[in-house]
Structure formats: C-alpha cells, structure tokens
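Design request, tokens follow.
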C-alpha cells in the first residue's frame, strides 16, 4: 500500500492558477505588515535602550510603539488570506505538517494573544512606569521575544510541508526545526523585517509636521536609511545560506531566474540608500531617491515571493501527484464497496511500493471495464502525471512517443528505473509493475502519444 495520505476528493472553489496568484499576493500583503511589526518593535526596543542615555529618543520609541500596535492587528487579519489559499492548494502537506508539529503549532494562538497583551501593556504604561525604565523595557523585550518565536513556528511548518519524504522521521516541532534550512530562512526574514522598518522610519520621520523635541529629523532619516542598508547588505549572506541549505528537489531554472531578477532589483536600491545617507541634510522629505528605492525593493519582494512559490510547487509536484493517485485509488475502492463488490486485498505494506496492477485492475475492471489492459494500467499508474499533448507533472506522451518510437522496451526499462533527464521537471519515481502490465502500458503510451502527434500535425496541403 502506498503510504501517501490521500488528497480530498473535492473540487477547488477557484481555478488553481487563480488561487496561486491570490496566495502570492495575499502572502506579500500579510508579510509586509508582519515585517513592519517585528522590525519596528526591534527598532523601538533599540531606541528605548538608547533613551536611557539620550532621553530624547524615548519619544521616538513611543511613537513607533503606537504604530506597531496597529500594524500587528493588520498583520493578523491579512494572514487569513494566505492561510485559506494554502489550505486549499496544499491541503495534504499543510495539514500533515501541522499535525507533526501539533502542540507547538497550536501554541501560536496563546502566544500571539500574550504578545499582543504585552504590547498594549507596554504602550499604556509608558508614563506610569517612567520611573521604572528597566521594567518597562523588559515588557517590550518579552513581547518581542514572543514575536520573534512565532515566525519560527510558521517557517518550521511551511518548510516541513515541502518535504513529505522526511515526515516519517519527524517527531514534533523540534525535529522539524532542526531541518537544515529553517534557521537561515528565519534569519533572512528577520533581516527583511528590520530593513523594511528602517526604510519606513526614514519616510515617516521626514514627513512634514513630524518633530520630536531634541532630535533632528534629518538625523533620524539617515538612521532609517543606515538600518535599512546594513540589514539589506547582510541579506547577501543570509540569502545564499538559505539557497545552499535548501534540498535540491525544488531547484529549477525558473526559480533561479526569479531569484536573480530579485537580486538584480535589490542592487540599485542598496546604492540609492547609501547615497541617501550621504545626501545633504537640508533637503526636506524622505530624499529624492526614496520612491525609487521602494519600487526596486518592491520588485525584489515580488520576485522573491514568486521564487518561494516556485520552489514549493516543484518540491511538492511529485508528492501532490502521489496524493492524487491515492485519492483515486480510494475513490475506486469506495465505489466498488458501495456497489457491493468484493474488495481486492490491499497491496504489500512495504514503503513506497505500489500495489501490483493485477490486483488493482480487477477493481478497475469491475467499474470502468477498460477494453485495453495498457489503458487500464495507464489510467491507474501514469495518468496523474502524463497526458497526451501537454505538460503535467511529467512530459506529454507525444514527446515520450517521439523519443521511444518503435521501442516499448525502452519505456518499460525507464518505468522500472527512471533516470534523471529534464532539469525543468521533478524526478520520476519508479513504478513497480509486473512484466505483462509493463509491456501493455508501454505499447499504449506509444499508440496514444503517436496518434496525438499525428492529430496535432497540420493537414497535408493539397496541390
Ligand atoms: C508522479 C508522477 C509520475 C508518474 C505517476 C509517472 N511519471 Fe513518467 N515521468 C514523470 C516525470 C516528472 C518525468 C520526467 C523525468 C525526467 O525527465 O527527469 C517522467 C518521464 C517519463 C518518461 C520519459 C523518459 C525519457 O527517457 O524521456 C516516460 C517514458 C515515462 N515517464 C513513462 C511513465 C509511465 C509509463 C508511467 C506509468 C507506469 C509513468 N511515467 C508514471 C512523472 C511521472
């Protein structure tokens, strides 16, 4: 019996591309507010410390804290969108990862609640605790410690769901946390948060009308740019670290292209930030390069979020197909049981093994009565990934028929022991079939692939 859990036999409420687009869009909206909340909180904490020596900064920290109690609410509300989309698109992997990290995953709710209450306590006790600075700072530090931990739970889960092949060895959150790339991803995220918040600080402190007694706004603008530049620069260490620790299953050309475009757009932003730190302080406003910086970093975020999605899609493609196969096999057995038929025994419990087709096809025969053995095998074992004339998980049968014209044995050999050919596809897992079934399915593939090619060819021109 294939150990893959089965996918839900329910239709999606929207087409898959539409849901995917929404997922990336909603995720960006959500993450921007998370970034500002976490990054802003850390910056405020820094300024509160600084205020111990330079009291004027106390007012600045206070203003920032007023903002992050708003952005944190928006972050949570906007988190619903991506959560719903991911539920629909990746139901099996997402819930499997949730279950495997169960206790800590559900802790997110009390932790978020606790962090929010601490943020409010901190905000509203500013005057009352004026004489107890240490305690006041500790409250914010506690809230921030929680807010730094929550993304780690999310990342651990979202990361774990990408690697079903590891699920057997995961016994709780800490196992999943130890997968090589979780901590680099967290670092990458934290730097992005502080960087976005630094940029926001530069803009916000240079608005007309903003003033804090004892602080020059041009100075604050510079500090904002300096924070953004330093943390963005560190991404050139954190980013490659993420890429190097990611298992190679999901890496492909499109993903690298998206990453390169993301980096290319980040470079001018870094340069402009550096120029803004140097700019004459007399100029009003956030600096004339500000919106260019925002635009180029915006493109970076868009490409990085796309790359993130491409990786996920690629890493899960093969597993998603397996879940679908398990779902179809279940539907078949279920229909057979309802019809009062005798259920064939389940296949061997060996991990990764697929039940021999001779068992499964008896049930398929009872329902669909396929006229052709090759067709029956194909429907059960290959159709989840291959169709005649378009790319699915695997290449179209047309392409396969071209490569193996007159050579069904070649297909049979490949199915038993697939090689690694196409870099833009995931690898194909071997399919164990008895020789008769293999021969039948190989011939079927050549027949269908060949006729699809013939149908697609332009009609002969009449003289
Ligand atoms: C879970 C998805 C999946 C299933 C199921 C699957 N394949 Fe594939 N198949 C792939 C992928 C992905 C590739 C491309 C692999 C590569 O080129 O590295 C592929 C490639 C192939 C190729 C091309 C080999 C070549 O030399 O170019 C053949 C032939 C093939 N599959 C036949 C089959 C047959 C027959 C079955 C059913 C018995 C089957 N596949 C089931 C995913 C699948």
């Amino acid at each position: 019996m294939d150990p893959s859990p089965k996918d839900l036999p329910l239709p999606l409420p929207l087409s898959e591309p539409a849901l995917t687009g929404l997922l990336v869009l909603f995720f960006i909206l959500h993450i921007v507010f998370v970034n500002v909340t976490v990054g802003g909180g850390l910056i405020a904490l820094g300024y509160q410390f600084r205020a111990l020596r330079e009291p004027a900064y106390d007012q600045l920290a206070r203003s920032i804290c007023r903002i992050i109690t708003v952005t944190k609410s928006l972050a949570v509300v906007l988190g619903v969108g991506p959560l719903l989309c991911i539920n629909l698109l990746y139901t099996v992997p997402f819930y499997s990862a949730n279950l495997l990290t169960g206790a800590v995953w559900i802790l997110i709710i009390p932790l978020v609640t606790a962090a929010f209450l601490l943020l409010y306590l901190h905000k509203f006790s500013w005057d009352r605790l004026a004489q107890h600075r240490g305690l006041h700072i500790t409250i914010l530090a506690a809230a921030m410690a929680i807010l730094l931990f929550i993304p780690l739970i999310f990342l651990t889960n979202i990361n774990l769901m990408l690697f079903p092949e590891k699920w057997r060895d995961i016994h709780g959150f800490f196992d999943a946390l130890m997968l090589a790339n979780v901590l680099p991803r967290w670092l990458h995220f934290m730097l992005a948060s502080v960087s976005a918040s630094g940029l926001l600080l530069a803009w916000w402190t240079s608005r007309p009308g903003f003033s804090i007694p004892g602080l020059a706004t041009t100075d604050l603008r510079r500090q904002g740019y300096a924070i953004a530049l330093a943390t963005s620069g560190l991404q050139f260490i954190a980013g490659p670290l993420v890429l190097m620790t990611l298992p190679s299953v999901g890496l492909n050309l499109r993903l690298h292209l998206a990453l390169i475009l993301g980096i290319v757009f980040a470079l001018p932003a870094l340069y402009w930030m550096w120029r803004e730190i140097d700019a004459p302080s007399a100029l009003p406003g956030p600096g004339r390069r500000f919106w260019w910086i925002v635009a180029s970093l915006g493109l970076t975020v868009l490409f990085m979020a796309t790359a993130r999605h491409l990786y996920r899609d690629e890493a899960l493609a093969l597993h998603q197909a397996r879940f679908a196969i398990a779902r179809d096999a279940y539907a078949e057995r279920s229909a057979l049981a309802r019809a009062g038929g005798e259920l064939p025994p389940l296949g061997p419990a060996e991990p990764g093994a697929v039940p021999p087709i001779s068992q499964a096809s008896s049930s398929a025969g009872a329902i669909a009565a396929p006229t052709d053995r090759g067709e029956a095998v194909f429907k059960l074992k290959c159709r989840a990934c291959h169709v005649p004339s378009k790319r699915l998980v695997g290449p179209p049968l047309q392409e396969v028929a071209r490569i193996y014209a007159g050579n069904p044995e070649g297909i049979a050999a490949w199915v038993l022991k697939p090689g690694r050919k196409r870099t833009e596809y995931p690898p194909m897992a071997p399919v164990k079939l008895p020789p008769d079934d293999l021969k039948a399915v190989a011939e079927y593939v050549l027949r269908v692939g060949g006729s699809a090619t013939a149908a697609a060819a332009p009609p002969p021109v009449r003289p």
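Comment from the thread starter after seeing the answer: thanks! The first helix runs from residue 16 to 51.
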